[in-house]
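User: tokens in, sequence out, please.
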């Protein structure tokens, strides 16, 4: 029994941020009902990296475990009535429609809270529910760029560098997850539901709390260096360096001791708090040349025992085989009915009494439509009629 066992979540979101937030609630034991069109949610048809899967593409598979699927046509009056009926017993409702769409569909907070005043309604958007950017597309890359994150690393002469992950989506997902949990706690104390609004822009700004505060409070400009320094507000050496066989990362080592370890005499006597800024590019360049002399493993054997913060640069192939990852059980494996053996990142939060568990893999379109409708009190012959009429779908 997960920590959220007994709570029901209606997941009406699409793409990554919303489904990822809902999946986290499912991982903690909530009964997550993915409400999707009879043709299937958008992400089912948009593969990531060309990984199509058998019947479920990998992108959808990775974001929708521990959910049941109800495939229903919300544009049909009967379909919308089904959703409104489910709202009566739901605890959390999640949507990431563009601002205004929920109102047009008749599934906005005012409408649903009138049906169920205890409902936690999580509304996710790109830029907020109103304002000059309200109609702009809230896509991950656009928010990385707008939030200032791309100009915190790399060479000043190079173009801004985006993250290699859907960073804005993931951060927004976790923000919505956090908001839903906090609102549920408030409801436990008071009995009242509420509207929880999360947008990608604010989430991306908040996660850069330290960096932005250095600018707004400390008055320090966000200035990239001539060398590919890993962070505009961190002293040298700080970044990725080539070795004889691969790469290594080094994070703000003490210059005097570090110079001795890598054979760079010019670092002797340098002050870590002043020279590391005044000579940032010089330190980076000299470190880069010295570290080419040995392999990554050789440097780690030298640097780690001396207390230098250093580490290898993994790709995904190395990550899944890493001994610490194996020790932690960071990945879970299970057999999916259509996709075969599946290995994905697991549960990042560990509870001693209410551990997360994998109860089901990502569902087929409408796989659980019949059982969800039966739980809602709809008679079997009525469910048959809805299925035959295409209002709902059972795969």
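Assistant: Sequence out:
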């Amino acid at each position: 029994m997960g920590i959220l066992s007994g709570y029901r979540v209606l997941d009406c979101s699409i793409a990554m941020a919303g489904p990822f937030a809902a999946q986290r609630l499912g991982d903690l034991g909530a009964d997550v009902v993915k409400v999707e069109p009879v043709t299937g949610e958008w992400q089912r048809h948009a593969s990531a990296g060309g990984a199509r899967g058998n019947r479920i593409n990998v992108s959808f598979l990775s974001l929708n475990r521990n959910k049941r699927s109800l495939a229903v046509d919300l544009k049909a009056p009967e379909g919308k009535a089904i959703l409104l009926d489910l709202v009566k017993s739901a605890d959390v409702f999640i949507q990431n429609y563009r601002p205004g769409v929920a109102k047009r569909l008749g599934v906005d907070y005012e409408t649903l809270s009138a049906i169920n005043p205890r409902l936690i309604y999580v509304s996710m958007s790109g830029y907020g529910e109103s304002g000059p950017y309200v109609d702009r597309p809230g896509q991950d890359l656009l928010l990385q760029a707008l939030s200032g994150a791309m100009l915190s690393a790399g060479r000043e002469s190079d173009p801004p560098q985006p993250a290699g992950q859907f960073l804005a989506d993931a951060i927004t997902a976790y923000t919505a997850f956090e908001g839903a949990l906090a609102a549920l706690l408030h409801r436990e104390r008071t009995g009242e539901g509420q509207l929880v609004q999360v947008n990608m822009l604010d989430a991306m700004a908040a996660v850069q709390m330290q960096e932005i505060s250095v600018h707004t409070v400390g008055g320090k400009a966000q200035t990239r260096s001539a060398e590919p320094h890993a962070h505009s507000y961190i002293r040298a050496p700080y970044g990725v360096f080539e070795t004889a066989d691969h790469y290594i990362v080094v994070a703000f080592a003490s210059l005097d001791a570090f110079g001795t370890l890598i054979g760079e005499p010019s670092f002797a006597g340098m002050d870590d708090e002043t020279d590391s800024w005044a000579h940032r590019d010089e330190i980076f360049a000299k470190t880069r040349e010295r570290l080419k002399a040995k392999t990554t493993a050789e440097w780690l054997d030298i640097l780690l025992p001396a207390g230098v913060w250093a580490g290898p640069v993994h790709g995904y192939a190395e990550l899944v085989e890493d001994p610490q990852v194996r020790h932690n059980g960071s990945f879970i494996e299970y057999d999916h009915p259509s996709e075969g053996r599946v290995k994905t990142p697991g549960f990042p939060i560990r509870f001693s009494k209410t551990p997360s568990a994998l109860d089901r893999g990502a569902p087929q379109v409408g796989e659980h439509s019949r059982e969800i409708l039966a739980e809602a009190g709809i008679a079997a012959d009525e469910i048959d009629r809805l299925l035959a009429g295409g209002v709902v779908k059972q795969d």
